[in-house]
Amino acid sequence: MLLKRLGPTAVLAAAVGCLAAIMSTVASFCNLLSACLVYDLPQALGRPGWSLAWSRVVTLAGGLLGTLLGVGSSRSVAFLGVLGWGFFTASLLPAVLAARFSLGSSRAVVTAMVLGAGVCAVLELFRPHLPIGLEPGLLGASLGLLWLVAFSREET
């Protein structure tokens, strides 16, 4: 229908726009992953960041992992939802609340982020066997927040 009404040039332009948006999103995710693992996490743990070469390796590994996950999964669209809601909520909610309310040490925040994201990822693998209504992202975020509150203390 679009081809008849708009012509092939307009349909091609729309397809190119969609692909550009997807590539931009993937590039952003790869850059965020690289910056987090190579610079932010070591800094939060009191260690020096890694080199540019490690940043490139992490970016490549993250891109390959995402490609394998998308190609190998029968639920590719569902994994976009997992990333968009569950994984980011589980990993970023403790950091945002810690920054807003000055909660605890950076080690507790980093551990809460890793715990929340890990719980979300593991539960997502077993999602077909989970009880109805159990949301992996929400459970991961809740456990991360509990960890943050339980192990937060002033940095010395």
From TrEMBL:
This protein's UniProt keywords: Membrane, Transmembrane, Transmembrane helix
InterPro entries the UniProt entry points to: Na/Glc_symporter_sf
Entry's transmembrane regions: 12-39, 51-71, 77-96, 108-126, 132-151
Superkingdom: Bacteria
Protein name: Uncharacterized protein
